[in-house]
Description:
The protein is α+β, with helices and mostly antiparallel strands. Helix content is 24%, strand content 18%. The longest helix has 27 residues.
Amino acid sequence: xxxxxxxxxxxxxxxxxxxxxxxxxxxxxxxxxxxxxxxxxxxxxxxxxxxxxxxxxxxxxxxxxxxxxxxxxxxxxxxxxxxxxxxxxxxxxxxxxxxxxxxxxxxxxxxxxxxxxxxxxxxxxxxxxxxxxxxxxxxxxxxxxxxxxxxxxxxxxxxxxxxxxxxxxxxxxxxxxxxxxxxxxxxxxxxxxxxxxxxxxxxxxxxxxxxxxxxxxxxxxxxxxxxxxxxxxxxxxxxxxxxxxxxxxxxxxxxxxxxxxxxxxxxxxxxxxxxxxxxxxxxxxxxxxxxxxxxxxxxxxxxxxxxxxxxxxxxxxxxxxxxxxxxxxxxxxxxxxxxxxxxxxxxxxxxxxxxxxxxxxxxxxxxxxxxxxxxxxxxxxxxxxxxxxxxxxxxxxxxxxxxxxxxxxxxxxxxxxxxxxxxxxxxxxxxxxxxxxxxxxxxxxxxxxxxxxxxxxxxxxxxxxxxxxxxxxx
Length: 474
């Protein structure tokens, strides 16, 4: 009733499907399930006929259908695309700040850490995963503020290895649930349920990492902290480096623990089985103040990001579940003033986040990954016809996903942090400035500021010849 331009009887009924997002009371064309009954369409809204005068709201785009789970983020928004055995995979990243220096090599560095075929404890699928930046970056390597599209073409896929699972569901895999939801699925490679989808996340995460590093010096490092019952020891979160993590194929910064992890993976690998593990991620130099009560708490968005990764089954911040074994006096992080850095906490059981907002301490996360579902050992299952069968899967799969999950975790953490950083700046740094000219007039001072018109800082006219020369120089 309160929406502008809407005149409906008090009890008029406007059916809105539950999967629609409604802003204010403005409505737009939408598909109405048949079970809701027939509706009369007036071109802008589906409205149950009612007695009395009715005016239908013109379409203004305020009712939209959510994307089907392939997009992440608010201001820094990432959409991934592609299937494991399709033509390629990649992402479109919208909201990247303009004027950021960005090269293909920076994205490729992170993708090389994620790529398959790195060692005997990862999948033997041999993909170069060379990325192409299709849009959003100028010839001078500077971001334009427009969507950045990144594509990685699939080359080493063997769809013939998936004949058995065309009809038989792999236990604990997404095969059955995809059929339940869609009635159809990409059989070869698992389609979107494959970890190959994460290529787009890692490429986008490389961009987010650079923004965070440039603005706040933020460093995001993940490592394998557990494989089966082998737990890493002696890892110092204040001093560990990426070189420490990348020093072995297990991606554990403690060499002694890494050797035991590799042995544990080899033990299940040679038997055609798999195992799970834990990835720990830390953030050093996280800006203070990220996160917003109550539904947009930083750890809430981090939890969603982590649990969206393939094979994840658990998430902890700081003390996590171990915190239930302590009292308040034991668990509380006492504050003190540091002469160089200001407010600090003596301990970090909160994991760098309190009240859903970052406090400047090291952010500490743990993510649990289950054993890989696809194994070559015989398993009982059911086929698409509802018949009990035995399945011995083929294909090339990781015996343990955690070594390759390390860059995936880092990337998703980076996407969350940069999105929250942009939201924090937009809300909390808008007021209190001395100069708003760039917000009001725009970011090109030569178009409105007399001191910059002409390009030499002295004012005056610029000829067409001068403009051409300036462009060529750029």
